[in-house]
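Box S2. Input/output pair 1.
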Amino acid sequence: MNRTGVTACTYCGCDVEMHDPVVVSEGLGDDREVAGRFCNYGCLAAHIEREGLATGTTCRVDP
């Protein structure tokens, strides 16, 4: 939440409550913390691309 009481999108800065927000958290079990809030999946996808968060990562693939 920013200083004006508006929960800003991590990517574009808009008020996420004006949209269908997506909240990303990190951690295990009860130790999870919010890592970002996004207006929608479009802002989340753009953030992932801009920050290069998927670079060098893969899902496990069993042949």
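Box S3. Input/output pair 2.
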Amino acid sequence: MDTRLADFSAGVRDTLPLLLGIVPFALVAGVAGVESGLTPLQTVGMSVFIFAGASQLAAMDLLGRDAALGVVVLTAVVINLRMMMYSASIAPHFRALSTRVRAGCAYLLTDQAYALAIARYTDEDEDVRKPFYYLGVGATLWVVWQAGTVVGVVFGAGVPDAWRLEFAVPLVFLALLVPVLSSRPRIVAGLVAAAVAVLAAGLPFNAGLIVGAVVGVVAGIGAKRLGLAAGGGA
């Protein structure tokens, strides 16, 4: 087997266990798009254009609440800021590639693609023909995400109006949030962000989410510094 195909296949194989979490997430994204008032085409288009689960759900939720477009875009950007760190970390491994190939790799960048690829690329015992392993991971995630979104759209469009599914988005965000509340600063950040977002719910343009996120980050940083100053762990 060609080494490039072997690396691509290895990326596909290593991604398969992750699909247990990706598939239901994609289904919820499709349902949430329909429930927020988007057409099926708009929902699928957003999935293709953004290709970022958490920011998609946040954007759909805000659109469903008639938030200003600027707030929707800013929210998506803030949620995806971590991709800048991922890019800076993985970019040296793709330095020799053409601009077109690097742009394609950037489009496929997700938490899962970064985690699998960087672990393999930093393993000194692995001789990886870049970027084929990464493309195997990213392409698999992309195809499954889009297919799951389409199925969710079809399912959501067929659900009777009496079966309200607005609870799906908050439940997914809770599922994403709980595992990361693993230290005192993070718990402080989460609690403060939630409290401020609720209190600021009446702000114009539905900006309460942005305000809550910013205040939560500041609170988390403050809690971490106070813990370190007092000799406590994070």
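Caption for Box S3: The CA atoms of residues 25 and 172 lie 7 Å apart. The chain has two domains: 3-165, 181-234.
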